[in-house]
Specification:
About 45% of the residues lie in helices and about 15% in strands. It has about 1200 residues and is an alpha+beta fold. It is flat, with a radius of gyration of 44 Å.
Length: about 1200
């Protein structure tokens, strides 16, 4: 049955492969550099693990069938282990110790050639190559009959580790990164070994060991893959300290190797080793939603994996580590051409394994694996139990502790004795008992004590040993890596001290074992898959029918709800209740009686409303009998299982003997036993809880008794009513409605029926018939059958033609369920026909809220709202002013509502109010951007109106709240209080809105230039904004704002003067910062004759402003000079143009020496020396007059002399 196979692979269980086996014998080999090397005590990398499946591990006739190698690194030690699921391998474990070196995490790479198994190893100082014989070359005979086989590590002791052809010291190449532990390795076509290491400059170093049979004809070489041209640097971007490769992977082609490197700057680069150049760069942040923190953070935790298929091509898997976005830590992930397996570790030291088939799972739903939880910390001991037996049972319970953890705990508990080596499971029990008893006897000093004291001392020492077991089990269970076989789809989980397998399990086991928080996420995707399973099982011989698909989808929901009921029961069964069922089964007693007894105990001790929760969940199951039947069939292994028809008994002897050893190793035997134990325990719990549930259903299920009463003609209406209720429980709603309608005619005629429908909570009590309909409507609502509710309520309206209150109730009910079903037009029609105005308003309010939440805004805007226009506007306005602006945008809805009705003034008012609230309540950069857009929208609305009507009323103070994030003021009944009356109404014209829009754009410009001002610019006044602009260096913008609002430019000149002073006496940091704000202003013409500085440009900007914005009496010159003098800064020559004013300022600041010098210079200027410095032309005029006067005196003198003579 294909469907059964598909269902069985729905979930996975973790199974430990070597739980009770003896510890493997490990050989230890050492490697030491000539001269000792550099001590690595200060270098300690994280532990890592990995593995390799042989290429023919999935072929039945291969010697490497079901065979793989896994490794683990810890400090300077590498553990190599070869495993086989078919045979027990001898000499299969070895420890390699590299003295004074530390193994790089993930620095072990295994390859397979025709004759060898090649292992490439990287430490922080060396690179190694191990050549081992291939298993196919170790056995010449095709007939392998032994249950044991030698491992490829058998002769590893003969390998010469110091052979120069198989190892080298990593040379101290300049630029080789010591901060990254990423590495990659591959084999070249000529047999050479190549190691890739990250470069601190962003490139990749490739270290090459020549072929092992080169015999000294070639030597070790190092090549750096880096950018060598300008165009290539432009392609990959500038490389800096953040461009360090953190994960490397290699894909080998026929004559080239492609190196994929994932960098700290979140970019993926592809390098060609053959061409020694970068071929591709891709920013990984373009494929995921990111924030600013992720883009700025260094991606130190990124991981990269490759998967290749000859038919599908190359797949690249990238994990981007986003700090502060989750508590789970990714340890490793495996990629195939169809699936992703991910290994996580949470803050509570719990292992999490998830997988997803990205080829078929379009919803992106990850599936959880039921991993083996850590043992419980405490052991409950009843008074009638022996402490030693109880602790021994808890310690040696299947699936609790591994052999290695118990060995380690015993060694530490026995204070380091070495005699506990290679003990079997039974020997380990004996040694643990002796060790605890010896510790107990050695620490007891009193010879006489009571039985209770003796018991407490036993508990104390056994608890101590149990704590040691917990500590080492947790340490050895720490996950390190995933190992996936793409050929057989087998998944292994590599831990620090053990190896486990992830085996497929059925859907029922998967759902039953999932934790509560994960089951909620699995229900939706599981229901769909169960639906497909049911269709394949029950409709395998008929064509596909959509109605059948819908019915089976509902049935799949029944199956999931049934499992949830079983989980509720299982979580409530105590240890004593569970023991009741176990003892009944052990003594071959009736399990039904035990289930009945457990049910009675559950009901008697029900303090958390368990029965109510189960009953509520049962109401969702429409066909419980069929669901239980499918559950039982799914748990039955004795179905139509047949022998594989393709097997031929006439196969050759060697093939038959070879197949006889399939899955015959002790590791597989332990895994199968563990799997059977786990499945048996799970199935037993499911059957136990199912029996308890069936006992509960027997108490609730009287459908059959009603059928026996059908021939009776007494109380026909009551029988039909009870029959309808039974149909409801069985999930046949339409039949139930027919019964209820038939029983309606007997209402008021049968006393028994009247008692059945009597209720204290009745909304329609005008007539018994309406009371009956109210009762039935409540039943249908409990079963969540909205379509039937609408049908019955529509029928009841004809009975309430003269009762407007009942009609209002019924139409409200019809409106509610039409709205729930998404029938917006029918819901609107039911609302408009509601005779009760208050209910109509409630329905209208609900319609607005629901359609907004569903984003069905077009229907909401286009409804006509006859006689309800003001009400809907009021509702939307109320919602707009009551909810968070960035969560639900009712303002834009109201804007669209008015635009659709061509009410542009109202639309402009809405957007203006929206912008005002954004400025006050949303102090963010997106909020400022939104505010500017709102004001632009308001301006556009007014421009669509005739000029004489292009005005709006300033929104009332109650519409915009004074405190950021404050809720609207409300009265005692919950309604918003009205705005205070008597306040003056302010009219805003188009020019006023344009000024506000300009102010909003200036706020946005300031926030973009200086993000630190975002929180204070939203509601700042023009004067305050000028100060902020001056502080940010946006002087052009500040001057424009001052001119728009007729403000003085004095703050601008004072601020620019102060910045010039800071530049004059500041350092390099101030000069670097100055270019940023200087670039934001319109500088005067550029000086090209000499090199200019930021200080010179600032003074030139100040001078240009003084020339451009001159006014009467030169107040801005005065404020600039005043600012300079107040800070003791000498005045530049170009600033002195009013000697009298400057003299007054000198005297005000007690600068007498400067004042005297100014007076003397001014007198000299008047006398003709340096008059240009003060702009004085007085000397030339006096000189000309004196010359004319002299000429006149000379003429008069000559004339007088002439006359005298």
């Amino acid at each position: 049955m294909a469907a059964s196979v598909m269902l069985a692979e729905r979930g996975y269980l973790e199974l430990t492969g070597a739980e009770r086996g003896t510890r493997r014998r490990v050989r230890e080999l050492g490697f030491k550099l000539p001269g000792g090397g550099v001590s690595a005590t200060s270098v300690r990398y994280a532990d890592s693990a990995g593995g390799y499946w042989y290429q023919e591990s999935a072929q039945l006739g291969s010697v490497t069938r079901n065979r793989f190698i896994h490794w683990a690194t810890s400090g300077d030690t590498l553990e190599l282990v070869e495993e086989s699921l078919d045979l027990n391998l001898l000499n299969n474990a070895v420890h390699l110790k590299f003295q004074n070196c530390s193994l790089l995490p993930g620095g072990v790479h295994i390859f397979e050639t025709q004759h060898h198994v090649v292992i490439l190893i990287l430490t922080n100082q060396t690179a190694h190559r191990l050549l081992l014989p291939h298993p196919a070359r170790m056995y010449r005979s095709e007939l392998i009959t032994e249950s044991h086989m030698q491992s490829v590590f058998t002769d590893i002791g003969k390998v010469h580790f110091r052979d120069p052809s198989n190892y080298c010291v990593i040379p101290p190449v300049p630029g080789l990164s010591t901060n990254s532990t990423a590495s990659a390795a591959w084999l070249s076509s000529d047999g050479g070994a190549l190691f890739a290491l990250p470069s601190a400059s962003g490139g990749i170093f490739v270290l090459t060991l020549p072929s092992h049979d080169a015999h000294g004809l070639a030597s070790t070489s190092v090549v750096e893959l880096k950018q060598s041209s300008v165009m290539q640097r432009l392609l990959t971007g500038d490389q800096g300290p953040s461009d360090l490769p953190v994960s490397l992977a290699v894909h080998c082609r026929e004559h080239d190797a492609l190196l994929f490197a994932l960098y700290q700057d979140h970019k993926l680069r592809m390098w060609s080793y053959k061409d020694q150049m970068c071929l591709m760069v891709a920013d990984m942040l373009e494929f995921v939603p990111v924030n600013k923190d992720l883009r700025l953070a260094a991606g130190t935790g990124h991981k990269l994996q490759l998967a290749y298929s000859e038919t599908l091509g190359l797949y690249i898997g990238v994990y981007l580590h986003a700090p502060k976005q989750g508590q789970e830590t990714l340890i490793d992930f495996a990629l195939t051409t169809a699936e992703i397996w991910a290994l996580w570790y949470d803050d509570e030291n719990q292992t999490i394994v998830k997988y997803i088939n990205f080829e078929h799972n379009v919803a992106g739903q990850w599936n959880h694996v039921s991993v083996q939880p850590l043992p419980a910390e405490g052991v409950d001991i009843r008074n009638d139990q022996d402490p030693r037996e109880t602790f021994m049972e808890a310690i040696f319970m299947s699936g609790q502790f591994t052999n290695a953890a118990l060995h380690k705990a015993l060694q530490i508990f026995s204070q380091g004795t070495d005699r506990h080596i290679d003990l079997s499971w039974d020997e380990l029990k004996k040694e643990i008992t002796i060790a605890v008893e010896n510790e107990f006897q050695g620490n007891v000093t009193e010879y006489e004590f009571s039985q209770e004291e003796f018991r407490q001392l036993q508990i104390e020492f056994w608890s101590k040993f149990h704590a040691y077991c917990l500590q080492y089990q947790e340490e050895l269970s720490r996950p390190l890596a995933l190992l996936f076989n793409p050929c057989s789809n087998m998944v292994c989980l590599l831990k620090k001290g053990c190896l486990s397998f992830l085996a497929p399990c059925s859907l029922m086991d998967h759902l039953y074992l999932l934790p509560d928080e994960q089951l909620v996420n699995e229900v939706e995707s599981t229901a769909l898959e169960v639906g497909y399973f049911i269709i394949a099982y029950r409709h395998s011989k008929i064509s596909f029918d959509r109605n059948a698909f819908v019915a089976e989808s509902e049935f799949s929901h029944d199956l999931v709800s049934l499992v949830q009921c079983l989980r509720l029961i299982g979580e409530s069964v105590s240890m004593e209740m569970a023991l009741t069922m176990e003892m009944a089964c052990c003594h071959l007693q009736s399990p039904e009686r035990a289930a009945e007894q457990i049910l009675r105990d559950l009901i008697a001790n029900d303090t958390e409303n368990l029965m109510e929760d189960i009953h509520s969940k049962l109401q969702e199951i429409k066909n419980p009998i069929s669901a239980i039947g499918v559950l039982i069939r799914e748990m039955d292994y004795e179905t139509d299982m047949e022998m594989e028809r393709g097997f031929n008994i006439a196969q050759p002897l060697n093939v038959r003997l070879h197949l006889s050893q399939l899955y015959g190793s002790s590791t597989t035997a332990n895994m199968v036993c563990r799997c059977i134990c786990k499945i048996s325990m799970t199935r037993f719990l499911i059957c136990r809880d199912l029996l308890i549930l069936q006992q509960l259903l027997l108490r609730l299920g009287d459908a059959e008794y009603i059928r026996m009463l059908e021939p009776c003609h007494v109380n026909v209406g009551s029988c039909r009513f009870m029959m309808g209720r039974c149909y409801l429980v069985m999930g046949e709603g339409h039949k139930a409605l027919d019964c209820f309608c038939e029983a309606a005619s007997e209402v008021g005629k049968e006393e028994f029926l009247d008692r059945l429908i009597r209720s204290e909570e009745v909304e329609m009590a005008s007539t018994p018939r309406l009371q009956y309909y109210d009762k039935v409507l409540r039943l249908l609502d409990t079963m969540r059958l909205p379509e039937l509710i609408i049908r019955l309520a529509s029928l009841a309206i004809t009975e309430a033609a003269d009762d407007w209150r009942s009609q209002a109730t019924l139409r409200t009910c019809i409106f509610k369920h039409h709205l729930d079903l998404g029938h917006n037009n029918q819901a609107y029609e039911a609302m408009t026909h509601n005779p009760d105005s208050s209910r109509q308003l409630d329905c209208l309010r609900q319609l607005v809220v629901v359609l907004c939440e569903r984003s069905q805004l077009q229907d909401l805007v286009e409804f006509p709202y006859v006689n309800l226009h003001n009400e809907v506007v009021g509702i939307i306005e109320y919602r707009a002013r009551a909810v968070d602006l960035m969560t639900h945008n009712y303002y834009e809805l109201l804007y669209a509502f008015h635009i659709y009705r061509h009410n542009y003034r109202k639309a402009g008012t809405v957007m203006f109010e929206y912008g005002m609230r954004l400025g006050r309540e949303v102090r963010t950069l997106p909020g400022l951007q939104k505010q500017a857009n709102c004001y632009l929208a308001a301006i556009n609305c007014l421009r669509l109106i005739r000029p004489e009507y292009a005005w709006i009323v300033q929104p009332a103070s109650g519409a915009v709240y004074e405190r950021p994030g404050a809720s609207p003021k409300r009265s005692h009944d919950g309604e918003c209080t009205a705005a205070p009356t008597g306040s003056q109404v302010e009219i805003l014209e188009l020019k006023d809105l344009e000024k506000e829009c300009m102010l909003a754009r200036i706020r946005l410009t300031l926030a973009q230039h200086d993000p630190s001002t975002t929180a204070i610019t939203g509601n700042s006044s023009p004067k305050e904004l000028v100060v902020l602009l001056v502080q940010a260096g946006l002087f052009d913008t500040a001057i424009s704002l001052c001119q728009t609002y007729n403000l003085s430019l004095r703050p601008v000149f004072e601020g620019l003067t102060f910045k010039c002073i800071k530049l004059q006496f500041g350092g390099e940091a101030a000069l670097t910062e100055a270019w940023d704000w200087l670039a934001a202003n319109q500088l005067p013409s550029v000086i090209t004759t000499k090199e200019t500085s930021a200080t010179d440009e600032a003074w030139r900007l100040l001078s240009s402003y003084l020339d451009r914005y001159q006014s009467q009496n030169s107040p801005y010159h005065r404020c600039v000079i005043n600012k300079l003098l107040s800070h003791g800064v000498p005045l530049p020559n170009w600033l002195i143009n009013n000697a009298a004013e400057l003299l007054r300022l000198y005297l005000n600041y007690d600068l007498l020496d400067e004042a005297v010098d100014l007076v003397l210079e001014y007198v000299d200027a008047i006398l003709g020396k340096g008059h240009d410095y003060f702009g004085i032309e007085l000397y030339q005029k006096v000189h000309d007059k004196l010359k004319i006067y002299q000429q006149k005196v000379e003429t008069a003198t000559h004339n007088r002399i002439y006359l005298r003579n």
